[in-house]
Amino acid sequence: MIQERKKNNPKIVVIGGGTGLPVILNGLKSKNADVTAIVTVADDGGSSGTLRNYANIVPPGDIRNVLVSLSNIPSVQKDIFQYRFDTNDHFLAGHSIGNLIIAAMSEMRSSIFEAIQLLSKMMMVDGHVYPAAEEALILHAIFEDGTKISGESKIAKERKKIERVYVTPTEDDHKAKASRKVLAAIHDADMVVLGPGSLFTSILPNLMIDDLGKAVKETKAKVVYICNIMTQLGETENFTDADHVCVLHQHLGKKFIDTVLVNIGEVPENYMDTERYNEYLVQVAHDFKGLAEEVPSIISDDFLELRDQGVFHNGTKVVDELFKLAFDNRRLEKRNSY
């Protein structure tokens, strides 16, 4: 019955990383979407960065969170997979069990792609999860002053305006390329969703893989960008919503985004715990005139979810909007085909 409903629902590919991606994926799963997640592999901080350097694997953190968001295993098993060792545990300090399992399975299978597919079966994942590439990538940033830095975790610390970013494999003797099945998923999709997530360090690292970015530009699917609610320290300080879109278009050399989802809900003054969420600054300012010059369609609504003294996208409201947009596009295509 579920598979039958999926056949009638849109094929949606979501590209990104960070904490925003699982929120959207969880909402898509609840609506029985035919969903594929393409996950960044340029993270080099925290547990992921340590395992990446120590075991020479693709950073597992974002992959772990995506697997959990699409999993149908009992919540207690998810909690075990997500459990992070205490900082007093020395050797295991800061590592989550899921990261260690992904690292072990990558070594067992000699392939991050095969490891994820096996884990997807074990965790009863409802959808497809693919790494953006099958090797760890290094994210490089060139700043407006001409200086350059390498490493995703170092970029924001510079507090400089970013001119552009690009990626290279750790072994710089070849070009980065998309993981198997990624390009086919993008070309076969009804909709490709970017974000929500850090513009320069969660979304663009995927699009900077040449064949992946080319596929997003060429797909017949509608491309939707979910704009961030807050500006980010060292990345998008003083950015408007139009600035976010403009950066994406400049990096790919084409105005490829069809629709932007913009939050217009107001974050209450002094609501956020600025120590806990210290990377977020102020709400993204609106520039609807600038957006209209970049994209054909803008959807604005109160997409806010306030919890734990933090600001998040309301996954249910965002996904309802994505589904409505996908079905409207499908009806339009049918009408045009007559």
Automatic annotation (TrEMBL):
It comes from the Bacteria. Keywords: Cytoplasm. It is found in: Cytoplasm. Gene3D superfamilies: CofD-like domains. This is Putative gluconeogenesis factor. The gene is yvcK. It comes from Carnobacterium inhibens. The keyword Cytoplasm applies. Required for morphogenesis under gluconeogenic growth conditions. InterPro entries: CofD, CofD-like_dom_sf, Gluconeogen_factor. Belongs to the gluconeogenesis factor family. PANTHER family: GLUCONEOGENESIS FACTOR-RELATED, UNCHARACTERIZED PROTEIN YVCK-RELATED. It holds the Pfam family CofD.
